[in-house]
Design goal:
By secondary structure, the protein is mainly α. It contains 19 helices and two strands. The N and C termini lie far apart (92 Å).
């Protein structure tokens, strides 16, 4: 009985190979050819070339093509491996070695993932002129494939302000990796992504440390448009959100005249971790004026040892600069 089942499996696999071969030999739709290469070939060269001059040539060709390349790039973003090809490769590890070799020698490797990434690199090279690909990029951004999600965020970031709405929507994903990728894209856009600031401030309190870190980094990348809301949080917020806002402001380094009073207010927080962050931020911006030094000196008498240690370390750095 076992031998009979084995033969049926072999016969089934042979049928798959025959069908796969016939499917894979069907001609595909011809793509746009530019300087002797298709859009897909230029895109794959941009992604895979180990030679900088090769990547530069591909990038230049795609930029020159601009909107003309978008139909082919959109097709690439939607590419799926044939069902039979996918089944053959996904089931191959379960087959005996002698059968596996025979099956895979007759079926081409899966390629859709490579084509997707190459297409997204092409979109990033073209930039805002590829705005019509945003719906496809949005779909890929929120997929479970980590590499493709990050590539989509990078491509969306290259679009500029037109992609802010899509990237902001991705901040509500259930997957931390998608949120992080979206914030990387928003950071790439910079000050023009100011409308995303409230959603990113929310992520300063996320349970995932990596998400919180990316929120700080992305807010710092947006810069001055984020300052008023961050100052408000530092003055009147609490917990992780307040501490993250202080970190972001330290990186942005806005007017010390505005930031120091907010940090001194934070130094009164009932949470020791927030008091420590206030001292760390005051040190980072060289808060060596008398009110700041006085408050930090008082913090040496704090009831929490971590606050006392932070204050002592801060004074060791700030007092020489203050001429004390």
């Amino acid at each position: 009985m076992a031998l009979k089942k084995r033969w049926w499996a072999i016969i089934g696999l042979l049928v798959i190979c025959v069908v796969a071969g016939s499917l894979l030999m069907r001609p595909s739709r011809p793509g746009l050819v530019f300087k002797g290469k298709t859009v897909e070939e230029w895109s794959v060269q941009l992604y895979l070339s180990q030679d900088e001059s090769g990547r530069n040539a591909a990038s230049a060709a795609l930029k020159e093509l601009g909107p003309k390349a978008i139909p082919d790039i959109t097709d690439m973003l939607r590419r799926k491996d044939p069902f039979i090809r996918h089944q053959a490769w996904s089931s191959a590890p379960k087959l005996p070695p002698e059968i596996r070799k025979g099956v895979l020698s007759n079926v081409k490797p899966e390629r859709a993932g490579l084509v997707h990434i190459a297409a997204m690199r092409a979109v990033a090279a073209i930039g805002p002129e590829a705005v019509s690909t945003i719906p496809e990029l949005s779909r890929i951004l929120q997929s479970k494939d980590l590499q493709e999600s990050w590539e989509a965020a990078y491509a969306l970031g290259a679009m500029g302000p037109e992609a802010v709405r899509v990237l902001t929507a991705a901040l509500h994903s259930e997957y931390p990796a998608v949120m992080q990728a979206a914030m990387a894209g928003l950071k790439q856009i910079g000050p023009a992504a100011g409308q995303a600031v409230p959603a990113m401030i929310e992520k300063l309190g996320h349970h995932d440390q990596s998400v919180r870190n990316w929120a700080v980094t992305a807010l710092a990348g947006i810069g001055q448009p984020a300052v008023p809301q961050l100052l408000e949080i530092v003055e009147h917020g609490s917990g992780e959100v307040r501490r993250g806002a202080a970190q972001a402001l330290t990186l942005i380094l806005p007017s010390r005249r505005k930031l120091i009073p907010a940090l001194l207010q934070m130094l009164k927080d009932e949470d020791p971790a927030s008091r420590v962050q206030s001292i760390v931020s005051l040190t980072a911006i060289n808060g060596s004026d008398q009110p700041a030094l006085g408050a930090i000196t008082d913090a040496q008498q704090d009831g929490d040892v971590s606050v006392r240690e932070a204050a002592t370390n801060a004074l060791a750095k700030l007092q020489p600069k203050a001429g004390l």
